[in-house]
Amino acid sequence: MSSDASQTRVDEPGHPNESDRRELRTAANHGLALATRREMSSGRVFAAALVALVVTLLCVYALLESTLQAIGQPAWIIDPETASRFVAGLPGDVNAGILGLLGVLVAVVGVGFVLLAVLAGRPGRRVLPSTRIAVVLDDEVLASALARRARTAATVRPEQVTVVVSHAEAIVNVRPTSGVPVRAEDVLAAVEDELKRLRPEPYPLLRVRVAGTGVIGA
């Protein structure tokens, strides 16, 4: 009887079966992946604003020159008709080397904008493992955590430790206190332990540098 009741309860509306639970887990994982991907891709706000500003300035200038020509006033720089004849007559008397250089410059700028639009940006962020929420850590926060562990291992003041985190590596620089030796192996082990605890992705290559000269202790 208990088996029949259990079966009836599973089939009732509002009680998800195993297939429904798998679908819910898949949807949740997909949502986490989308949220993580969105946080890990840099925006194009600056590039878009720059292009919009340049286009706006060119349009305003063209409108200004057209207005001056319409009211019979001299051109501010060059009137549209003269500019059109100049472009149509290229290369004309213009040095071919200068034209080639300008062409290369325009091509490089164009390729740069195309790559900026197509390739994914790489902001200073890393993903931390989590099955419930999307956790993204800024490189500055990671550097602060590594510096704290390195400072504790080296027994130095905060200003004697600097950490530089790039996409591929994390460099820990330690300036020991005069008369107090610091073993780079101890600092490396402590910082590596912190990295293993956090497990950031991408995982940076760790380097520790201990300065040969110390600072005078307070």
Automatic annotation (TrEMBL):
<keyword id="KW-0812">Transmembrane</keyword>
<keyword id="KW-1133">Transmembrane helix</keyword>
<feature type="transmembrane region" description="Helical">
    <location>
        <begin position="45"/>
        <end position="64"/>
    </location>
</feature>
<feature type="transmembrane region" description="Helical">
    <location>
        <begin position="98"/>
        <end position="120"/>
    </location>
</feature>
<protein>
    <recommendedName>
        <fullName>DNA/RNA endonuclease G</fullName>
    </recommendedName>
</protein>
<feature type="region of interest" description="Disordered">
    <location>
        <begin position="1"/>
        <end position="23"/>
    </location>
</feature>
<keyword id="KW-0472">Membrane</keyword>
<feature type="compositionally biased region" description="Basic and acidic residues">
    <location>
        <begin position="9"/>
        <end position="23"/>
    </location>
</feature>
